[in-house]
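Predict both folds.
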Amino acid sequence: MKSLLRLGAVLALPLVLSACWSSDGELLPETELVRPDIEGQWIEPVGAEVSGGDRNYRVARDGNTFLVDRLDKETNLWNADSAVQFVSMGAPWYLADVLNEEDGATFVIFHLKSSREMTVYVPSCSSAVAASGDVQYDDVDNYCYFGSYAALRREAGKLVAALKAGDLIDVELTHTYVRK
């Protein structure tokens, strides 16, 4: 199922294009996958000055995977955007694996602030993360490639703790979405 989703997913989310935590394969264990309440339509309010205005997304669940479609404003058609899986970092915080046929697995942190708002944090590949063990550093693209779920979960836990304390130092980008 995951391989099929990878082949069918075309990733256009801006959060993934700049993400710095990755792996060459899928690391999230099937037994730990959870299904946060994110089904429905979401808007990323970016304003008219950025790429033609707000971005519209539709999220549907397929088992433990969420399929994300993005509205093409020119054709008014929904296009496959990504497939996402989650493990809990202590609700309402989640480590998410954004599945992408070109880049492999890309990891971000989701914070469901309420039933109507979520923020996605794109982690940076800091020197501390790169040197933490079972992480390979790509200095050309400034990516951290995780070799194991244990290393990924350890670093995600540190990042979530920092975010809860209001520390954004190890975050590359943030994206806020509101339910339509």
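Second protein follows, with its predicted structure tokens after the sequence.
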Amino acid sequence: DWARLRDYVQRGEVETTLADQRVEHHRANEVLARCAAPWVVNQLELGGGPVLVVGYGGEVYERLIEERWPGTKIRRIDPTGNGIDWKTWERVTGAEGAYQTVVLSGLLGCMPKGQMGRFLRTVSRRLRNGGQLVFHDAFMATGVLPPPEAVLGFLARRIWRGGCGVWTAERLRNELEQLGFRDIEARPLTAGTVMVVARRPADT
């Protein structure tokens, strides 16, 4: 949509998302998460304790985790019919230190602009000391020149999603370090996605 691209270049970030684009974005994230879930779970090291899965592909994550670690207590928070929204964030409740592992699947591209820091603080309080925070998402590459189709895809998402959703692993690392997370590691996975694992220090 060249007219929308022109408006974006001239006026900057757009705060609205068309309904049909929201639905397609929701469907695409769900398909990608379901495809990548086996790779993510294969690299998980749970080490016991309850698991919280927030975001896309939750049904697949729950099944795979139960198969690999029978008896693990799992809580799942799936997107609403409109995808990820504030109703999703508000459902991340529970006592502080309730979970050993929190998996956030496909959230970065859906986060309301400027709210990632707030959400990360909410989630980190639910982690036990020594617990791990696991992200699976599509990240904008740095250090190498991405193929044109990847750059165009990120640009389109930035325009249609109101300026949010364009993250690099380094940007996420900086956010996590400010919250005290350590041992932050980014691992490339299938379909051009990345798994980021960060640990909350055991002595916090």
